[in-house]
Amino acid sequence: MIHAYLLLAAYIIDLIVGDPRFIPHPVIVIGRGITSVEKIIRRLAGEQMFRLAGVLFPLIFVGGSYVLTAVLLKVLAAIHPWLGWAAQAWLISTTIAIKGLAQAGMVIYRHLTKGNLEKARRSLSMVVGRDTDSLDETEVVRGAVETVAENIVDAIISPLFYAAIGGAPLAMAYRAANTLDSMVGYKNERYRHLGWASARFDDLVNYIPARLSAVILVIVACLLKLDWRRSWKIIKRDARLHPSPNSGFTEAGVAGALGIQLGGLNYYQGVASKRAKMGDRLRLMKADDIKKTVAIMHGVGGVFLLICLVCAIFFYRL
Description:
The protein is mainly α and about 325 residues long. The chain has one domain (about 1-315). About 70% of the residues lie in helices and about 5% in strands. The chain contains 12 helices and 2 strands, in the order H-H-H-H-H-H-H-H-H-H-H-E-E-H. The chain has helices at about 1-15, 25-45, 50-55, 55-80, 80-95, 100-115, 115-125, 135-185, 195-225, 230-240, 250-260, 290-315; strands at about 260-270, 270-280. Strands 1-2 form a two-stranded antiparallel ribbon. Strand 1 and strand 2 (about 270-280) form a beta hairpin. The longest helix is centred in the middle third of the chain and has 48 residues, at about 135-185.
């Protein structure tokens, strides 16, 4: 029961407060630690040892985040139980990014509705890695929709899923795994060997939440009077076309629900990169699709939270 109340409190904290810049964020601390350890490994280990050394990242940061968070909460709870509870709720809130993700999408939406394509491009460039300088309005919309849809899993459902199972320590361990993947989990020359374990581990921990998110997304599409049947069809048909084994489920679901096509050609520092297309192009994308995707995101998070509360009450009574 306690985890359900913690999830609710953390969810509300993130919706209201988000990630204020004046409060040190745990992810920043984790990121700096990853950078420091990478420098040490590159200095001490030969390139032929990078693949083995890559295993150290999940062991140090995922395991370390869990242990440090558990110890901190135990100390705070020993001072006063409510202090430990409040700290745990806040820590869980730092692992989710509902407010930040919604704001990122809606800023781009507002720029487009005001006809300011240049500002929309700049705002998109802050949340994606692709080149945005020459994108037309349709491509800006696609980038925003893909970003919000993809992050439903790793910015909302996955951390809530692990918080429901193991409280703040497990949620923070998940966030460490996800941060590792975003920093070293690339298949390029620099990280192919050093980041392989981090990338594989992130795929593993997101496996169940991604598929759970897809099911909930179809339910939310129905509640929002979107095309839930097509959403389910596109998930089954296209989700596995995504280069990530998990991100495609929510992207395909959103594409189907909105009747649009995601994926296509992107440029990264001038280098072309083709991504498999998901969904059927029933119409051209428009700015309002960003707003609808943000609504879907809120709906998926809210329904998952409700499921957690109902399960907690049911099992508590048993």
